[in-house]
């Protein structure tokens, strides 16, 4: 189109030049227009091609080898495409187990959760490295005061693709607290997490499993799925110098294993050490790891 426009301008200028004295100016203007348009084409910024690389302004879809689809050859989606929504395949029952919504959906699944963070990048990265190795997602239930102290660690969990849950601000038992206090403990975490990573949690676990009726009410009002657990690793009861801590974490989980297990663990060094072997054992038993985003936010 640029070349056709330039050619038309040049022809117009030549016709005008045959008519007399004004025509030299017209020809000069036409030539100037051609030069400017050619320069504009040469300076045109490269267009992004959707995968982080730059595509020449004149490159066509056929030259990309993908039929002009805007995707890399081979059918892969562009990196900046919106992530696909995770279908809702599971729900939580009143015993806090994960249950398939429909017949035919895999029943032998477990939900992985880690409480009381964020504490240390070393532990978080150790846990997530293992989760990534096993293609697993988990909920990291965080305390507000820890997020305030270490906002970069919350961003680390989120940026590495894991799910953030609400574990109250101060890690106190909420069962006997007045509603105003319970609301503050829950909603302050909602606010600081959203301010830090751009989205609020949708899962809530009360400290010690003690939320009470008021905790359940406030959680629901904030769009949170309230849960405790159905398989406790007991990693929080172990002493820091226990050499067999990792093996004990594994044994505790395996002893309580059942379809839909909601496994409670913590951001602790011996849990991070145990996780790879634990997940390997679970897989050897035919279990897979439910994506928390596939769980409905209503218990039934």
TrEMBL record:
Pfam families: Polysacc_deac_1 (PF01522). Keywords: Hydrolase, Metal-binding, Signal. Residues 108-290 form the NodB homology domain. Residues 64-73 have a biased composition (Gly residues). Coiled coil: none annotated. InterPro entries: Glyco_hydro/deAcase_b/a-brl, NODB_dom, Polysacc_deacetylase_ArnD. The keyword Metal-binding applies. It comes from the Bacteria. Residues 1-25 form the signal peptide. Residues 29-81 are annotated as: Disordered. This is NodB homology domain-containing protein. It comes from Paenibacillus cookii.
């Amino acid at each position: 189109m640029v070349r056709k426009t330039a050619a038309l301008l040049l022809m117009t200028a030549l016709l005008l030049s045959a008519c007399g004295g004004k025509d030299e100016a017209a020809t000069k203007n036409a030539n100037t227009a051609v030069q400017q348009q050619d320069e504009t084409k040469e300076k045109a910024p490269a267009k992004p091609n959707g995968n982080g690389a730059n595509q020449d302004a004149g490159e066509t879809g056929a030259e990309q080898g993908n039929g002009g689809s805007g995707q890399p050859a081979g059918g892969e989606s562009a990196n900046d495409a919106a992530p696909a929504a995770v279908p809702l395949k599971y729900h939580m029952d009143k015993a806090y187990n994960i249950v398939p919504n429909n017949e035919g959906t895999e029943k032998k699944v477990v939900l992985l959760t880690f409480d009381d963070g964020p504490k240390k990048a070393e532990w978080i990265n150790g846990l997530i490295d293992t989760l990534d190795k096993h293609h697993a997602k988990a909920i990291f239930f965080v305390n507000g005061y820890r997020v305030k102290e270490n906002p970069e660690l919350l961003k680390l969990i989120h940026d590495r693709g894991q799910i953030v849950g609400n574990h109250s601000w101060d890690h106190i038992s909420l069962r006997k607290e007045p509603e105003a206090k319970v609301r503050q403990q829950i909603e302050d975490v909602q606010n600081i997490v959203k301010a830090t990573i751009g989205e609020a949690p949708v899962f809530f676990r009360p400290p010690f499993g003690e939320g009470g009726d008021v905790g359940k009410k406030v959680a629901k009002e904030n769009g949170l799925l309230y849960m405790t657990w159905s398989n406790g690793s007991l990693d929080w009861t172990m002493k820091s110098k226990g050499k067999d801590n990792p093996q004990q974490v594994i044994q505790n989980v395996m002893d309580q294993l059942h379809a839909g297990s909601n496994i409670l663990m913590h951001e602790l060094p011996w849990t991070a050490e145990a996780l790879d072997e634990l997940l390997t054992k679970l897989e050897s038993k035919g279990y897979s790891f439910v994506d928390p985003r596939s769980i409905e936010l209503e218990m039934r």
